[in-house]
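step: validate -> pass
step: tokenize input -> pass
step: predict -> running
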Amino acid sequence: GWHHRSEGESLMTKIVLLVVLLAVGGWFWHDRNTLTPQKVEQFYDRQEHALLSRDAKALCELLADDLSGTSTVATITGRVTEELTKKTACESHEQMMKAVRDIGSSMGGIAQLDYNSRVDNVSIAANKRSAQVTHRYALAVAGRMMHISGTSQDTVGMRMGRMVLIHSEGNSRMQVIGQR
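step: predict -> pass
step: emit ->
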């Protein structure tokens, strides 16, 4: 036979359904905003992919709007330290990609990029929303026409379900062929 639901049963079913949906949604939201060592590795993999794709815009999208820190670069002429903001970092990525294109053009083609990167000492915060990371990297452009290597102490974190670079203290060395 047919079972007729009362108002009370119907309301109770809706409440149970709502609680289940909130629990699943909360778990999903929590999971999206929770850092794991694997997610940190994937973040640096995305950075590497953007770099090797010569995609300054994609590199820029990996940065927090309120990015802070410093970047110190040692060259033949000395050391230059600049404050890091999203604006300065994005401009730096654009200049770097232009330099890579210029080197390629001067050689009559496309400059090969070789990039090695290693993530060490991933220390995830107690709230699992950020992590301290030691990042080591080396980039060679067109063999050794330009070589950049360095280390940065980074803070990455979740913002609106996306992992971004929030703070970075970096030291690198840049050598260009023809310079000692």
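step: describe -> The mean pLDDT is 87.
step: cleanup -> pass
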